[in-house]
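re the bet — no i am not wrong, look at it urself. input seq straight from the record:
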Amino acid sequence: MAVWGGGGWLLDRWLDTRVFFAVGVILGVTVAIYVVVVKYGTVDPDPGSRTGTTPDGRRSRSGTQKGQR
């Protein structure tokens, strides 16, 4: 956020505008949220939920597929 906001502030000073600082801060927040989501991924399912495994830990077979009985 500080890097993109700082870059926007410098660009605003150079071009004598007021828009790039806000755009830089918003872009910085967006990139920060993206990095957190990529690093930590999705939430693990609850231990009691059905995950496609049998009680002894083996993967269960999927249902029939096209062309198989």
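see?? Residues 2-40 form one domain. told u. also The first helix runs from residue 2 to 15. so pay up
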